[in-house]
Design a protein that fits this description.
The protein is globular. By secondary structure, the protein is an all-alpha fold. It has 17 helices and no strands.
Amino acid sequence: AAALVLMPRSLNLWMAAGLLWMLDAAINVSMEPFRAFVGDQLNPKQRPAGYSMQSFFIGVGAVVASMLPWLLAQAGVSNTAATLAGTGIPDTVRYAFEIGAGVLLAAIAWTTLRSREYPPETLLSFDDAAPATAADPLDPRRERRKGLAWGVAGLAGLALVALLRLDPQLYLVCAGALLWGMAQWLHGRGVPPGLFATIMGDLATMPLTMRRLAPVQFFSWLALFSMWIYTTAAVAQVHFGSSDPHSDAFNRGANWVGVLFAAYNGFAALAAAVIPLMVRRFGLRLSHLVNVWLGGASLLSFLMIRDPHWLLLAMVGMGFAWASILSLPYALLSDSLPAQKMGLYMGVFNFFIVIPQLVAASMLGFLLRSMFGGAPIYALVLGGLSFVLAGLLVLRVPQPGPERERAA
């Protein structure tokens, strides 16, 4: 909330970037307890509907947030650049950020003060709270070998980027591989009990369902970040004929992308009401496959559609994919987690959202320049293919308990 209030008052780029980092970190940290909360409160049969309701309200909130500056302008608030602290930010934007901060605090406070929370011993008494079957027991030698392999790959990548003078953003991915390798190697060597040892131990022995959901999340969110980063440039170039950010055509394309993004969030709210029906008919895995493939078809269609108004139709598929990504993987995951570790593993699961964000920011630009002549539309094509792969990978996830019982 503090970041939202201060961001329109940023005095320079570094202040704005720092506030954005703080906001992103705070949202990531606060989001995961809400994911675990649904798993704690609902039984396995109710969880798909519970997570779909979260998707519904996320979609509605995103639509309202997108429209808020326009609504304020219609209410008579100034929509011209103000002189507040020399930022030149319109009052409509500043008030929208401040309203968002107030709504955020009110929503979190309401949930914290008004919702019950079961103590651990009560959670363990639930029928579905038996500890899930984990992966193979921790093997220190295997951890050291994996850590060494990641470390060597990271060092080799750093050397190649330096020697070949590749995109400096690739240093981020290579450094991440090196740090992960060092963490695994240290854990394999044995470290004193503590936070680091606990997290690394839980990562090494996480349940099979979570292990197989990780690549599903990775490729799903890689597709989303490719869309969020490159849609404006792609639509402006392909559908409005301009690559110049200062041109009127480019700005018209950017405004239309704002409409498209508001549309898919609105469709996501509607899809959230349909997804529980899909789950009852087809099961969690097949429903998620269908939804992310709809998202894949939507992104791939940007290459073929020439009339920008028809892109609204593509946003229907993106709405189903977005609503599904926000709900069904968590329903699959919560059914496989021991109750006493629900919050921890939901937090760890968030790694597979952050990692594709870093990969998209550091590698997509390099791939576009080296393979596709820098054309941003092909980032959306790569995103569509990532969705297709995510749908195939979800079939590797073990069938949830209630669905196994129905099949039997």
